[in-house]
Amino acid sequence: MQTQVIRIHSHGDSSVMQLENEVLPAPQVGEVLLSQTAIGVNFIDTYHRSGLYPLSLPSGLGVEACGVVRAIGPDVTEFKLGDRVAYAGGAVGAYASYRVMPAEKLVLVPAGVSDDIAAGTLLRGMTAQYLLKQTFPVHVGQTILFHAAAGGVGQLACQWARELGATVIGTVGSEAKAVIARRYCDYVISYERFSEQVREITGGKGVPVVYDGVGADTFAGSLDCLTPRGMLVSFGNASGPVPPFEPAILAHKGSLFFTRPTLGHYTSTRAELVNTAADYFHAVRRGLLKPEIGQTYALADVAQAHQDLALRKTQGSTLLRP
């Protein structure tokens, strides 16, 4: 089976990505062959490409896609030919038309969830799930701050947090994104003086949790938003990594908690992966969450997709079409 695949032979800007042809081997024990119908593009892909999260080179890119099972290797019992499946996380290499994958990394896509939604939002949906229900479980009556509320994770997480009974404050970087975030948040604020705005909204109390996927630019201000014993959940580096800091600052600002979680550590067992994905898909099917695909690019146009993502030109989730 021949596949088209995006490869990088060095780390760098979007120009290092090359479209190549490869021959795939037949699936081995515990593996399946997928014909991929849609591929998700995520910020972590840009980190892998640039070398912020270095890869062993040469390498593929991408961690999320949806496809159809076309061949099954020995000892695979959970899936059959023709099943619609998706994955998010694991080894890079999703930017491809066909792919051989370990069956243990796949989840069934239920009826009522489209290929595009599964491919473009499963990573974000499972991220929202573990952030809101596991890392810091959100409860009725709480007020929370979620940065980049108009982004792919932000849109889903803010919707879900409100369904859980929280009051949601979301930050955005432009009026265009504020229009989007107002659909999902109770309060939409700019990044300018955001900690002061949060204090004003909460009557000076602050919030028990800040979910921060922005990183360097918002770290200090996020700490200033928290109540005593509040938690800063730093789950991304859109503006660059959080700089080194003295742990004593957490004590000084109220015995705060700081965590840097990853989806992989919250879905490290088969049961955790299946349950996290099922919870997200269930919320979509019930209409509790309305994920949106903002833009779609051809696989060959992946450089443009990365450029638009880096420049914050995208809204919602981004897809590549094989």
Short description:
This is Quinone oxidoreductase. With 322 residues, this protein is an alpha/beta fold.
Task: Give a structural overview.
This protein has 322 residues and is α/β, with parallel strands linked by helices. It folds into two domains: 2-122 and 267-321, Medium-chain alcohol dehydrogenases, catalytic domain (Quinone Oxidoreductase, Chain A, domain 1, Alpha-Beta Complex), CATH 3.90.180; 140-260, Rossmann fold. It has ten helices and 16 strands. It has helices spanning 43-50, 115-135, 152-163, 175-181, 194-201, 219-224, 248-252, 263-266, 270-285, 302-310; strands spanning 2-8, 17-23, 31-41, 59-60, 64-72, 84-88, 98-102, 107-108, 143-146, 167-172, 187-190, 207-212, 226-234, 257-259, 293-298, 317-321. The strands form three sheets. Strands 3, 5, 6, 7, 8, 15 and 16 form a seven-stranded mixed sheet that branches. A six-stranded parallel sheet has the order 11-10-9-12-13-14, sandwiched between helices. The chain has a three-stranded antiparallel sheet with strand order 2-1-4, with no helix packed on it. α2 packs across α3 and α2 (115-135) packs across α9. It starts with a strand and ends with a strand. One of its GO terms (cellular component) is cytosol. It holds the Pfam family ADH_N.
N- to C-terminal separation? 15 Å
Strand content: 25-35%
Q: Would you identify the CATH H-level superfamily of the largest domain?
A: Medium-chain alcohol dehydrogenases, catalytic domain
Write down the domain tally.
Answer: 2
By CATH, the topology of the largest domain is Quinone Oxidoreductase, Chain A, domain 1
Q: What value does the average pLDDT take?
A: 95
What is the count of β-strands?
A: 16
H-E order: EEEHEEEEEHEHEHEHEHEHEHHEHE
Q: What would you report as the Rg, rounded to the nearest angstrom?
A: 20 Å
CATH C-level name of the largest domain: Alpha Beta
CATH architecture of the largest domain: Alpha-Beta Complex
Low-confidence residue ranges = none
